[in-house]
């Protein structure tokens, strides 16, 4: 009777785990400064084993950025973002953006650090601009209905709102006392109370 071979060496990462670790390495060292060799070394894999899972470092970046942007874009299509008064829809989108940021913290952090140095990064930045444009339309509609102040330009208001939301990646820790819902309440209290008409 033969004894089953003991598997040695290579850690048993699945594709998801490799992607998550790659995102962390990209955040720590910067995407451009991360080589396939250093990524493989961090994972304890050979370069060929890494290539078995993903065709390139760029493919890892593309999937990570798509996960972040896809999650944000999905918020714009939820019923709360498409039905009802514009002010309520804007609130839903901001809550949803905070939720995505908390749920996909590393992925959104990476998204916010890309600078357009490759086709993949430029495509992600284009999607971010399109997202911002859709939120700006929503801010403008909320201004038109009188639920938020009209004396601040809609595009400026959008940038200020998402400047606040996006800053969360710099200080939020999932182990802290606040979850996504409480954090969203705080963001909305600070952000919207300054925009709301009284």
TrEMBL record:
Residues 35-54 bind DNA. Keywords: DNA-binding, Transcription, Transcription regulation. Residues 12-72 form the HTH tetR-type domain. It holds the Pfam family TetR_N. PANTHER family: HTH-TYPE TRANSCRIPTIONAL REGULATOR BETI, HTH-TYPE TRANSCRIPTIONAL REGULATOR RUTR. This is TetR family transcriptional regulator. It comes from Microbacterium murale.
């Amino acid at each position: 009777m033969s004894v089953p071979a003991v598997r040695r060496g290579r850690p048993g990462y699945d594709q998801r785990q490799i992607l998550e670790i790659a995102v962390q390495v990209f955040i720590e060292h910067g995407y451009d400064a991360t080589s396939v060799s250093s990524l493989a070394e961090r994972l304890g894999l050979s370069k060929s084993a890494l290539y078995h899972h993903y065709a390139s470092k760029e493919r890892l970046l593309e999937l990570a950025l798509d996960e972040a942007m896809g999650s944000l874009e999905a918020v714009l299509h939820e019923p709360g973002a498409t039905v009802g008064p514009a002010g309520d829809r804007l609130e839903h989108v901001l809550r949803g953006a905070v939720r995505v940021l908390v749920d996909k913290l590393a992925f959104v952090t990476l998204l916010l650090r890309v600078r357009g140095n490759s086709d993949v990064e430029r495509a992600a930045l284009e999607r971010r601009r399109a997202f911002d444009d859709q939120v700006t339309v929503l801010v403008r509609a909320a201004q038109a209905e009188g639920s938020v102040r009209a004396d601040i330009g809609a595009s400026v208001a959008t940038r200020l709102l998402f400047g606040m939301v996006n800053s969360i990646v710099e200080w939020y820790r999932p182990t802290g006392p606040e979850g996504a819902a409480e954090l969203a309440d705080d963001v909305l209290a600070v952000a919207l109370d300054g925009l709301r008409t009284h």
